[in-house]
Amino acid sequence: VQLVESGGDLVETGGPLTLSCTISGLISDDNAIGWFRQAPGEARAGISAISARDSSTYYGDDVKGRFTISRDKAKETVYLRMDNLKPEDTAIYYCAVGEFIKASPMQPLWYDSWGQGTQVTVSS
């Protein structure tokens, strides 16, 4: 499985931005597709995930209500719509494919195929 993120940009506080993750290769119903981010000096953290089986969605507390994950199966693309962006959202954003673990769907350890990342910078 190969993943390519796009859509990262410099945006103002409060602005919207949508990231795309194009996936090539087979995705099974046992997989999840996740979005992660890593700010300088911090560990990579999961922020959202979507189950390949039933498209159930999951969000971290710091993005819930502001970010929306969705999947277009025909285009094999997963999107992350980000609204009301804050300076603390500044990070490199990655998408990844891994095993769906319902108890902790955004745990980076479950993901084994990663994209190269796309930079999101939110100006204050």
Give a short overview.
By secondary structure, this protein is mainly β.
Annotate the secondary structure layout:
Elements (H helix, E strand, L loop, with lengths): L1 E5 L3 E3 L4 E8 L6 E8 L6 E7 L5 E3 L7 E6 L4 E6 L8 E9 L11 E4 L3 E6 L1
Parallel strand pairs: 2-11
Antiparallel strand pairs: 1-3, 3-8, 4-5, 4-9, 5-6, 7-8, 9-10, 9-11
Describe what this molecule looks like in 3D:
The protein is mostly beta strands and 124 residues long. 0% of the residues lie in helices and 52% in strands. It has no helices and 11 strands. Strands 2, 4, 5, 6, 9, 10 and 11 form a 7-stranded mixed beta sheet that branches. A hairpin with a 5-residue loop joins β5 and β6 (57-59). The protein starts with a strand and ends with a strand.
- Cα separation of the termini: 37 Å
Oligomer: single chain
Integer-rounded radius of gyration: 13 Å
Estimated share of beta-strand residues: over 45%
Helix content: under 10%
Element-by-element helix/strand order? EEEEEEEEEEE
Q: Mean pLDDT score, rounded?
A: 97
DSSP summary: helix tally: 0
Number of strands: 11
Based on Cα principal axes, name the global outline: globular
Low-confidence stretches: none
Sheet with the most strands? 7 strands, mixed
The SS-based structural class is: mainly beta
